[in-house]
TrEMBL record, chain A:
Keywords: Cell inner membrane, Cell membrane, Membrane, Transmembrane, Transmembrane helix, Transport
Transmembrane region(s): 6-28, 62-81, 125-143, 163-185
Broad class of where this protein is predominantly found: membrane
Lineage: Bacteria, Pseudomonadati, Bacteroidota, Flavobacteriia, Flavobacteriales
Top-rank taxon: Bacteria
Alphabetized Pfam families for the sequence: Sulf_transp
Name of the protein described by the UniProt record: YeeE/YedE family protein
Entry similarity comment: Belongs to the TsuA/YedE (TC 9.B.102) family.
Compartments in which it is found: Cell inner membrane
InterPro entries tied to this protein: Sulf_transp_TsuA/YedE (IPR007272)
Membrane topology category: Multi-pass membrane protein
Length: 188, 137
């Protein structure tokens, strides 16, 4: 049963993600997770302040049902389909993280140095999570999609704008991972 | 229940992304440092599957679940919105290690801290809505 409880092989995982996109296409919808953020803003009444949120969010109920499903899926996978044997990183990565004061995974999905309740209660920890979220929310809506909408759906349909967006994802990601994370974590 | 099939697709997607460890901050860090093939393999295989699937749908002019022809929406033309917006998302993705899908999935794994990321993402989306008309697209 190790093949279920351990890390799923990249080929199986990638295939199933592609299938998810195709299933939604078959249902007559498109695969994109970040547009739900706009729908949620619209539900909360943001249409009063910007026309961008003046939409009938009921037309997007199907997408919110997908979101609700992913939360349940995360719960099931974490509690019933895992045995803490996963996240086996490159030993070089673990050594590098150690120099930044970031704990090794040891089967965890997320580092305590960023996601623990203790960190959450510090101004720096809270600010990191908040700024990350702001960049994700603003950036995905500006770019009109995230990993699912551009990197998977858009590129699968050979869309040039999606290629530009994915290049953008990597420019931002490389700058953060190589230049900013070391500054952020060494300046504790 | 009209929404049940969407909910179940979401459950499936949530399980796959969690078991693929695409929701793991560590995997995103490792990807941006090119220290593992794992994430590249996942994205590459998903793309390979997606490209072939969409080609079949187009060539065979397949009908969707409701019997309508499947329309695949083309992305709007543009450059600045994709490169600037994309880079901003990339900065956030590498900082907190989650894209919008995993933000929701991680809520399900019981990670309370991700609620702050979700709050930030909603706020960021809202700010974009306010500034949209002043930005180059």
């Amino acid at each position: 049963m190790e093949f279920i409880y351990g890390t799923w092989h990249w080929s199986i995982s990638g295939f199933l993600i592609g299938i998810t996109m195709l299933i939604l296409t078959y249902f007559g919808k498109s695969f994109g997770m970040s547009s739900n953020l706009r729908t949620l803003c619209s539900m909360a009444g943001a249409g009063k302040f910007s026309d961008f949120f003046k939409m009938d969010w009921r037309e997007h109920k199907w997408s919110l049902a997908v979101v609700l499903g992913t939360i349940v899926g995360g719960f099931i996978a974490y509690h019933f389909l895992s045995n803490a044997s996963g996240v086996n990183l490159n030993p070089n990565t673990i050594a590098q993280l150690q120099t930044l004061g970031i704990d090794a995974p040891n089967g965890k999905l997320l580092p305590d140095a960023i996601f623990s309740i203790e960190m959450l209660q510090t101004p720096k920890g809270f600010a990191l999570l908040m700024i990350g979220g702001l960049l994700i929310g603003f950036g995905t809506r500006y770019a009109g999609g995230c990993t699912s909408g551009h990197a998977i759906s858009g590129l699968s349909n050979l869309q040039l704008p999606s290629l530009v967006a994915v290049i953008g994802f990597f420019i931002g990601g490389l700058v953060m991972a190589h230049y900013l994370l070391p500054i952020i974590f060494k300046a504790v | 229940m009209k929404l049940a099939r969407f909910f179940l697709t979401g459950v499936f997607f949530g399980i796959v992304l969690t078991k693929a460890e695409a929701v793991s901050w560590y995997r995103i860090y490792e990807m941006f440092h090119f220290q593992s093939f794992h994430m590249f393999g996942i994205i590459g295989t998903a793309l390979f599957t997606g490209i072939i699937g969409l080609q079949i749908i187009k060539k065979k002019k397949l009908k969707d679940y409701n019997g309508f022809p499947i329309k695949i929406i083309e992305k709007e033309r543009g450059f600045w919105r994709y490169i600037i917006g994309g880079a901003m998302f990339g900065l956030g993705w590498a900082l907190v290690g989650s894209c919008p899908g995993p933000i929701f999935i991680l809520l399900g794994t019981g990670t309370y801290a991700i609620a702050v990321v979700l709050l930030g993402a909603l706020l960021g989306t809202y700010i974009y809505g306010l500034l949209k008309d002043y930005l180059p697209h």
